[in-house]
Amino acid sequence: MTAQILNGLIVGSMYALVAIGFTLVLGVLDRLNFAHTEVFMFGAFAGLVAIDAGGIWWLALPFVFVVGGLFGMAVEFISFRRFEGDARITAALSSLAVGLVLIDLTQKVWGTEPVGMTIPGYVTTAGFELFGMRVVYVQLLILGVTLALMASLHLLVSRTRMGRNIRAVADSPAAASLLGIDVRRVTQDVFFVSSALAGVAGLLLAFRTGFANTDVGLTFGLKAIAIMAIGGMGDLRGAVVGGLLIGVLEALTFQFGVGKLGELVVWVTMILVLFVRPEGLFGGGVHVKDVRA
Amino acid sequence: MTAPVLETRSLSVAYGPIRALSGVSIRIAEGETVAVVGANGAGKTTLMKALSGLLPAQSGEIAFQGRSIKGRGPHDLARAGMLHVPEGRGTLGTLTVEENLRIAYDVRPARLGYDEATAAVFARFPRLADRRRQRASSMSGGEQQMLALARAIVNPPAMLLVDEPSLGLSPLMVKEAFNVLHEFRDRGTTMLVVEQNVRSALRLADRGYVLRQGEVIASGPAAELLADDQLLNRYLGTRTKEGA
């Protein structure tokens, strides 16, 4: 059972990484970026390109970080820049279309079947025993990278000038602009960071499964959006806790032989949590404010 | 007269089809305190927003330090030396008092170091020192107004725009806010104040403009406007006995 919990935490940490990017854009900019799940999907394919071209497999991680971030900035330009204020739903729909186009284009290049990703066996199959539980190095890699990125994001938002500006824009774009903060620049920064995290999450998932797959945005990625709602819309802490929680819950349903319910766990949890606490587990109004807690 | 720090010529601003300002020409000279007074809905806040770049001008000119600033955004103008303390204060409630000051300090290169600059703020507003690590939203409206005005101390602007500093404050805090503005004036801050509280504003100012339905209907030395009972009664609805 501990092995299943470990598995759940690993899957959950990837959920969390996708969810915090989605929730960051929502919390700071009040925008729903539905292309987010497909940037996550595309992260694996961008990783394929890097691995095929380079040879040093782990260099794919920073590469995907940058490619994902640039994609995010492109989505901001294409779907969000023209819409300010009241047209948020229009912008969200535009981003949904961008995401679907990205799936289609990816399938045009790589086909609809999952594409194998070759990274060394000492990562994907080698491991060690810990308290009678087998730990594979790729699991540690995923946990390590996700935790490091989440901690970095926390430090970025709470301790740096850029983070201060991000929180100022989250508080009030107009007031922030009167204090000399370039709201458009902050918007681009937020989209970059958000999508960079999603791209890396997509690559990590491919490391684990051994495949890049064009379906994952609409399966795995969509769950991350549900997790954001469970944690509290726009709340970074909620996205992390929600991601880990759902990961473990899914793993446990598998453990107790009700694995067929696995796909339902996240949706049922979301319905129940929102029914009891419409603001989500951590949400309480002003989105990013609790990031320092 | 020296060249104006801020000047508009025939400025018009519209919200869609609704014209909020028509042909407004005002000027604020270096070191001068100017008041724009008028009833609710006269266009005072619209004027401020147009000056600081929050609203686009429909026609006319705006010049800041001798250069046209039409089309420049608010963050750009803030960096160039414009400080607009908006109606409702514009403090960042979810950030701490200290972070609010830091952002105001960082807006453009400052004469003083950060520690010196905040020391000056805390010397003038000891309450802010007590609350430096608290969220701005945890403070009273009056304290938040002080935090907003403290921006002009932490990194003095070339042009200070203050919109309705008395709005929503207790009489005691209104007095305190005007005390601070009097200090700014005495220090030679170039300042434009917009107020519904006509008498307080005109007592503070060197010159005044009276705005009515988006147009300037009177202007002149503040003392003269203040003495014109007919003007005050007819257009501003102030009673002669009103205190401030």
Protein model, in words:
The complex is a heterodimer of chains A (293) and B (244). By secondary structure, chain A is mainly alpha-helical. Chain A has one domain (2-290): ABC transporter involved in vitamin B12 uptake, BtuC (Orthogonal Bundle), CATH 1.10.3470. Chain A contains twelve helices and four strands; from the N terminus they run H-H-H-H-E-H-E-E-H-H-H-H-E-H-H-H. Chain A has helices spanning 2-29, 36-54, 60-80, 88-110, 121-124, 137-159, 161-171, 173-178, 183-209, 217-231, 236-255, 262-276; strands at 115-116, 127-130, 133-136, 211-212. In chain A, a hairpin with a 2-residue loop joins strand 2 (127-130) and strand 3. The longest helix of chain A has 28 residues, at 2-29. Chain A starts with a helix and ends in a 17-residue tail after the last helix. Chain B is an alpha/beta fold and 244 residues long. Chain B has two domains: 1-81 and 159-244, 3-Layer(aba) Sandwich (Rossmann fold); 93-156, no CATH class. Chain B is built from ten helices and eleven strands. In chain B, helix 3 (97-106) packs parallel to helix 6 (141-154). Chain B is globular. The two termini of chain B are 31 Å apart. In chain B, 48% of the residues are buried. Residues 240-244 of chain B have low confidence and may be disordered. Chains A and B meet through helix 7 and helix 8 of A and helix 2 and helix 3 of B.
Find the count of extended strands of chain B (DSSP E, 2+ residues).
11
Shape of chain A: globular
| Strand portion of chain A | under 5%
Largest β sheet strand count, sense and barrel closure of chain B: 6 strands, mixed
What ranges of chain B have pLDDT less than 50 throughout 5 or more consecutive residues?
240-244
End-to-end Cα distance of chain B: 31 Å
**What order do the SSEs of chain A take from the amino end to the carboxyl end, as H and E?**
HHHHEHEEHHHHEHHH
Q: Indicate the mean pLDDT of chain B.
A: 93
